[in-house]
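Lab manual, section 2.4: Encoding a predicted structure.

Procedure: take the sequence of the chain (330 residues), apply the prediction step described in section 2.3, and record the output as structure tokens. A sample record is shown.
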Amino acid sequence: MIEARGLFKRYPSRGGEPFTAVAGIDLDVRPGECFGLLGPNGAGKSTTMRMIGCVSRPTAGSLSILGLDAAVHGAAIRARIGVVPQDDALDSELTVAENFLVYGRYFGLGKRVIRERTTRLLEFAQLADKADQRVDTLSGGMRRRLAIARAMINEPVLVLLDEPTTGLDPQARHVLWERLFRLKREGVTLVLTTHYMDEAEQLCDRLVVIDGGQVVDAGTPRELIERHCTREVLELRYDSGDLADLAARVRGGLAQPTETGAAPSPGVQQALAVRERVEILPDRLLYYTDDGEAALADIHHRALSPATALVRRATLEDVFLALTGRTLVD
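Recorded output:
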């Protein structure tokens, strides 16, 4: 569905070097899957989505969408895809049904076809009783469902979704997830960006993590978690004491001798340093380990008992922070 090789996007700057937003990424999106683009602000996700949507031409590299060259066949590609921007871009002073009519006419569809598809899409979006209601009276969740349904008016085989659930409450997010699962079951290929790691873990078959305009890793959510994290994370909170000193003492239990008394090989030591580790946060320590309960028992045994402790499974958020860091990016 999408094949990108060495994709670059540079923007001119006044009195300096051009700004490189996307720096030579490779992508492959397969038919019928949900593919995620994850990354911090400014990583290049939106720029990549604009190139895939054929509204921004790549500076260098090749980009094929639906088997067509994006640099040559932009109009033909846009006619076969759906786009749900982060800003709904709905006509708020029109009714729900009128939004479908106006948007459908952009694709050259006749009024009868639009009416038929509108009825079906309103049922899909659970908005059948809102057809004659003005958009500006709808809730945030209703507007997002409407934006997704409207993007399906041309029956696209590929839909691009930019942060589809930003700002929604948990109930609305889960309803939207169910709608997206339905689309995927119907064979529609989805490409989405999101800042919600649980959303990416729930929806995405495969994903890439982008930072600084480059792909830093790719795979299924489970592959990425196994590659960069241990099975569990032990969260340790202490009422007092120097967290850096406590972290050093907790780390003392990581590099245990093998049963034969021999030290781990350099390769194993390097892998442990990446996966089994202790991170210092302002209010707690994160101890990455394959057995959180055993690690906690060892900490108590070494008289390092925390005020509170929590054992949880490692998540995609742990991977994301390991790959992109915890520094805030504006």
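Check your result against the sample. The domain at 230-313 is CATH 3.30.70 (Alpha-Beta Plaits).
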